[in-house]
Structure formats: C-alpha cells, structure tokens
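To: structure desk
From: M.T.
Subject: fold request, one chain
Message: Could you run this one when you get a chance? Sequence is below, nothing fancy, just the single chain.
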Amino acid sequence: MAYSLFNILYKLRSIPNFSSFISSGIHSHTFLLEDLFFILNPYSMKYVITGGAGFIGSHLAEDLIDSGEQVIVIDNLSTGSLSNLSGISSNDKFRLIISDVRSVRHWEDILDGNTIIIHLAATVGVNKVVCNSLETLENNFQPTLTLLNQALPLGCKIFLASTSEVYGESTGVCSSESDPLIVPSSHCGRSAYTLGKLTSEHYCLNYSRQFGLPVIVARFFNAIGLNQIGNYGMVVPTFVRQALAGEPITVYGTGNQTRSFCNVKDIVRAIRQLLQTDSAYGQVFNVGGSESITITELATYIKRVTGSSSPIVYKPFPPHRSLGKDILHRKARLDKICSVAGWKPLTSWHTVIDEIIDHQKVLLQSRPREQYAYV
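Reply: Done. Structure tokens follow.
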C-alpha cells in the first residue's frame, strides 16, 4: 500500500515525544526500524491490557507477545505482580505502565485506531471485595467509563471481562446469557462487585448500540491456573497451599457448592477467538469450564494428589462474606460462544489442578516456608 506524506506524518504522531525526536536528531534516540514498520503497517494491531500484571492478564500478555503482537499493560499492581511479567518484560514489543486506569495521562501516546483494549482490571477475590464496598463499586465501573470515552473517538475495539456473579443464585443447571441478572439484596462487598460489573456491562453495550463502538462482554466463570494466588480468597491456590503445608484444608459451608473451573489458557484462547470474530461484537458471552464438581470433591482430590495428611475441616462462612452465605451452584451454558466463535474448553479441571500442584511443589522447594505461606 502506498502512503502519502500526510498519512506517514499522521501515523508518526503516535510515537511518544516524536517532536523532540525530530528536533534532537535521529541518532540521539533509540528508534528501531521495527517501530516504524509497526506504525506504518495498516494491518498491525496493538493490544492494551488493563490489569495485565494479574493472573489472567499476564497469561494473555505472554500469549500475545509469543504471537509477535505489541502489548501495553496498564496495572497499578494492587493485586498484580511484576513477577508475572518477568518472562516478557524485556521484549521490544512489550511496555508496562504502572498506574490506575483513571490516572493515566497522554492517552494519545497509547491508543490509536489499530488498538484493541482488553479491560481486565478490577477489584477481585472474595476477601478483597468484601473489605471496602465503595472502593469495589468504583473500581469495577469507573475505569470502564474512562476507557470507553478514550476509545470512542478512535473506534478502538474493547473487550470487557465481566463475571458470573451477575447471575446470582441461578435456579437452573447452567447459567445462560439470556437469564435474569440478580444482585444480592445486602449492601455488602459482593453486591458492590456485582453492581460494578453490571454497570460496566451496560455502559459497554450502550456505547456499542448508540455509538457503534465495537465491544465484547465476557462473563468469566472460576478461572484457575498457574500464578493464581490465594491471598484474596481464591479457593484452588488456598487448598493447594494448605495441603502442601500440612495445614487443615478449610471448606466453608457444607462443601456441596458446585463450581465449573476453567483453565486460564482456555480463557486466553476464548478472548482471542472472540476478538477475531466479527459477529461477536455487541454481544455478551459466557466463558467457563464444562465440568462441575463440589468443593468437597475439590478438597478431597487436592489432598489425595498432594499426598497430604491435612484434615478437611468444615467451617461456617464468615458473616462479612455475603452474610454467611454462598452461591450454591455455578456453571456456564456455553452454546453461544461455541456457535459464534467456535470455542469450547479443552482442559479438564483435574489436569489443571495437577499442573498447579506440581508447580507449587517446585516453589515450595525453592522458597523459605514463611514466603510460601503467601502463595
């Protein structure tokens, strides 16, 4: 494709501090031919991942970098970790901005018409969610509105990570995208989390319908995998840590609650397939596992595979966790994403659990006991 001088200069404006680059001379700046090719190539894409130092975001960033894509991660590191990005931090196509989305300046140096925004940043984890309802509510919708307003003039594609929490206590075997959406009646952190995510969904879908912004909403169900931590109440890393440390494996409630765990690698694949599917834009999709297990089955399996002598102990839910209750059953109906994007989960939950246990055993051997207690 031939470029006019105007086209070239317009695209060069996306280089940060390009004016100083021109005035100071080419040789005084680090400027690679690959950078120029990226800017001038009309088919190249740039991915901006908010929350990219977190569990799902870091897996996605690594997958995109491995595919040769350019990735910018925005993360305030409140729950994310730089160690999650250690494998790609030195890559020329990777850039990290340590900031809250709402505090980012100079969006013109980050976004252009070839940018895809993948919005994963949120307050996550049961323990963190319940600590501050107001913070949870604001963190889960205000950054979304910031991104929508920045994306709208450029027509950037946006992928919003929502949650299965919006279905509340589903009355059916599986939750479908067309099911009623339910917010817990208490004004607790869990309600704030759900309301924040629902507000983000409504903003995204209305920007799509009213302004034509290309948006996809995905409701994630119980992601698990390597590098997930148990600090904020995630059940799988918590059980694995307890089992390997010889501590009681703590099950809240009866243990009859069921979940459909999904490998984070399958979730990354779902994100990429949806983004590549034109008919997916303007729609909502479930993303989750296809197998259901009880929390007792999960604890029993982890105890057996680790060879742990830990007892399985049942305790009532703490009052601050949804007033001592939990959602009993959570499983995604996956017909829609399978039909539209051709996606389905490929990894069974026990295969992922085995990988997590093997990985944590290696970490346990290489870390002092007091450090491992926080993994």
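Reply (cont.): Confidence is low (pLDDT under 50) at residues 1-11, 13-35, 370-375. Let me know if you need anything else for the meeting.
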